[in-house]
Write a structure and sequence with these properties.
Shape: globular
Largest sheet: none
CATH superfamily of the domain at 1-109: Tetratricopeptide repeat domain
Distance between the termini: 65 Å
Oligomer: single chain
């Protein structure tokens, strides 16, 4: 069970100069140096602040933008990193730190072709750079271009013969092309240089496990897990050894640790079931076997779709169907790739553009989502769902006029589309147009009486309206009836979807009705589910204060 992930080397292509921690530094150069020092020490928030201050002092500081982008990569903010690194290159084309880290960014975000192109260019300009050569090798490896990766890793080792991480990755590439002897050779060489490499220990142990050399495999796998408790492949291989040696309790422990980290691991569920049966834990074994069968059916469904692509790689419908299967089972990244392949093969494929829009929207990539929905609308302008999707994109960007227009267009083509009606209600609500919002919320509930988002929205609006002392609520009788209606709406929303936001609305409704104990219970439930929400805590304080006064 080789760990296929590529362990990227830290790639801060900078000289860390020795700088005193000078909080009075004013020049962009000083701020940049302090940012570099903070980044080297892992103080990323502080590093970002220094780079941002350097840019404020000197808006054309390419080095500061490059440093900013580098830190964003370290903390996983890839979109922000790309903007900063490209800004650096706009200011200073060819800046090594910016180009090298942009190539690394491309690799980490799966844009392997772009990464390889940029690394190859850098390799030509900097043939003696170990970091660039290992980056190129890793990009080839991630793209499954193993022959080229092997060549690039060998070139890396020519430059730096004792780079154990490169040896480990080289061994992994040999393993991928089933050259086990070479894989073993380089894993062993890497461990001779650095015995603490978890990947080398685990992968070499897994090879020996497959070859039946359990005495060799076991200590390597045990060590890999000690070094990296999240190394699921090593835990699984060790579990197989424990099962083979009839250590079923240990096997169960290992399989469960794999499942805790990788819930869809088919083999772990199957072998867990077998180990539990051996321990006479029949009920638990049956549950594990049921999970295995469900996951195996999913895997077979995906495999069938993938094989269809192998048979007809230029068939856009097959790509689209593969995307549907991936999406159905939560593999959204792969679904996106399949839909992209479908529209590349057939640019007029409206359904595939629509699916791209939905997935981009899910990832908050609103520009890409807008482009996808517009492409779909250009092909099929009378499809209501396309306009509803575009409306949601506009709404998320607070482009309310455009969103309202799209939602209204949606209802021209399909008056029953709930999401368009709730979108209209939400826009009027945000604008403070209460009467229009009430009408739209009520229209939503006529379409779907269990639309919990409309129930909560209407309850929230009633609370706001009451708080503003609306003239229609001047009569105490009317006001009491209105509050009870608000409570009924909020309670139903919580029954349908007991989420923190709805519990907060319910707490406010109870509080307004004077039911302080119910309000306290609801707001505490909301805080338990979302402990970091300041608004919830402020509501709790407010309810407690009033409750104390009324005792």
């Amino acid at each position: 069970m080789s760990q296929k992930g590529v362990p990227f080397l830290a790639f801060l292509l900078i000289v860390f100069v020795s700088v005193a921690w000078n909080t009075t530094a004013q020049t962009p150069e000083d701020l940049h140096a302090l940012g570099m020092q903070a980044a080297q020490q892992g103080h990323y928030t502080q590093a970002l602040q220094y780079f941002q201050h350097a840019i404020q002092s000197d808006p054309v500081s390419a080095k500061a933008y490059a440093g900013l982008g580098t830190v964003y990569i370290q903390i996983g903010k890839f979109a922000e990193a790309e903007v900063a690194l490209k800004q650096a290159l706009d200011i200073a084309p060819g800046l090594l730190q910016a180009e090298a880290n942009l190539a690394l960014l491309y690799t980490r975000t799966g844009r392997n072709a772009e990464a390889i192109d940029l690394y190859r260019k850098l390799s030509q300009n900097h043939p003696d750079s170990v970091q660039i050569q290992v980056g190129l090798a890793a990009a080839y490896q991630k793209a499954s271009r193993f022959a080229e990766a092997i060549e690039a890793y060998h070139q890396t080792l020519n430059l730096s013969p004792k780079l154990s991480e490169a040896m480990t990755n080289l061994a992994s590439c040999y393993e991928a092309v089933k050259q086990q002897a070479q894989a073993i050779q380089y894993y062993e060489s890497a461990l001779a240089l650095n015995p603490e490499l978890s990947m080398a220990n685990g992968n070499l142990g897994a090879i020996y496990q497959k070859q039946g050399e359990l005495d060799k495999a076991r200590p390597l796998l045990e060590k890999a897990i000690r070094l990296d408790r999240n190394f699921t492949a090593a835990s699984y291989s060790l579990g197989l050894i424990a099962s083979k040696q009839r250590e079923f309790e240990r096997a169960v422990e290992l399989y469960r640790s794999v499942i805790a980290q990788q819930p869809n691991h088919i083999g772990a569920h199957y072998n867990l079931a077998q180990a539990l049966f051996r321990l006479k834990q029949v009920a638990e074994g049956k549950r594990a076997m049921e999970t295995y069968r469900r996951l195996n059916a999913i895997a077979q469904e995906i495999d069938t779709r993938e094989r269809a692509i192998l048979n007809e790689p230029s068939n856009p419908r097959k790509q689209y169907q593969l995307g549907l299967t991936y999406e159905k089972h939560g593999k959204f990244g792969k679904a996106l790739e399949a839909y992209q392949a479908a529209v590349k093969l057939q640019p007029e494929y409206a359904a595939a553009h629509y699916k791209l829009g939905r997935l981009y929207f899910r990832e908050h990539k609103f520009d890409e989502a807008e482009k996808a929905y517009r492409s779909a609308i250009a092909i099929a302008p009378e499809q209501a769902a396309l306009h509803a999707g575009l409306g949601a994109v506009y709404y998320s960007q607070a482009r309310f006029d455009e969103a309202l227009a799209e939602y209204k267009t949606t209802l021209v083509y399909d008056t029953s589309l709930v999401h368009a009606q709730i979108g209209i209600a939400a826009i009027h609500h945000r604008r403070g147009e209460f009467e229009k919002a009430i009408t739209a919320y009520q229209a939503t509930l006529k379409l779907d009486a269990e639309a919990h988002y409309a129930l909560n929205g209407l309850a929230t609006l009633y609370l706001e309206e009451t708080g503003q002392g609306a003239s229609a609520l001047a009569s105490p009788v009317k006001k009491a009836a209105h509050i009870q209606e608000t409570i009924a709406l909020a309670e139903k929303a919580v029954r349908l979807a007991p989420v923190p936001k709805y519990l907060h609305t319910l707490a406010l409704a109870y509080f307004q009705a004077g039911a302080h104990q119910k309000a306290l219970k609801a707001i505490r439930s909301a805080i338990e589910m979302d402990p970091g929400n300041d608004a919830f805590r402020q509501t709790l304080v407010k309810i407690k204060q009033v409750n104390e006064k009324t005792k």
